[in-house]
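Hey, resending since the last one bounced:
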Amino acid sequence: MKPYNTTESKKEQVRSMFDAIAFRYDALNHLLSMGVDRSWRRKVIRRVHVAKPATILDLATGTGDLAIMLARKCPQSAVTGIDLSEQMLAIGRQKVSQAGLEQRVTLVQGDAENLPAEDNSFDAVTVAFGVRNFEDIARGVAEIHRILHPGGIVCVLEFGMPRNKIFGTLYRFYFHRILPAVGRMLSHDKSAYTYLPQSVDEFPYGEKFRGMLLQAGFTDCRITNLWGGIAQIYYGRKQA
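The structure tokens again:
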């Protein structure tokens, strides 16, 4: 699934899409999720905090919300955020500076499927609402495993679909009809918020994604359902 009907790769299209909507991304994200995305991120942070990592990599960091929250909650940690979109990162760097966290949070442009990091170089990796944008999800998961220290953890927060039929029907109506219409109107990008529900539909959520973590070599892989399955937190550990 690609955002635009062009010959560019999904990776290039995703980069272009987020560059285009970066200036309104934060406001739209919180508005369209009704602010619930913040509480979901806090659940990820609690998982990471328990592990007391010295180094954290936040993939698909966007404008740096999760990276900043991690740095605040984990004062012992150095946090690196990586994203394809330079426009998103530019906004993120302003937020890092305003938070006074320049010494502990570094945001760099990079590709999650070809990470600019040595083997065994991070204690924890987080990804919030970004895995479904990977061009090759299995390769991205393998890269996460590669750069984690033995014993390191991964926490992925991603959208799914509710299990309850009635709630699921209502949610799909909102997700496929209302959200794209509002997103298009406010972001001035006709494709970006049409791509969002379609990318969620295609994402191998639940046991399929847990299976990808296991196949990449992670152990102790668990799923936490949020709000009846609207989203999930996936946890895994690299064998020590």
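Helices lie at 10-32, 36-51, 65-73, 86-98, 137-147, 165-187, 192-202, 207-216.

Sorry for the duplicate.
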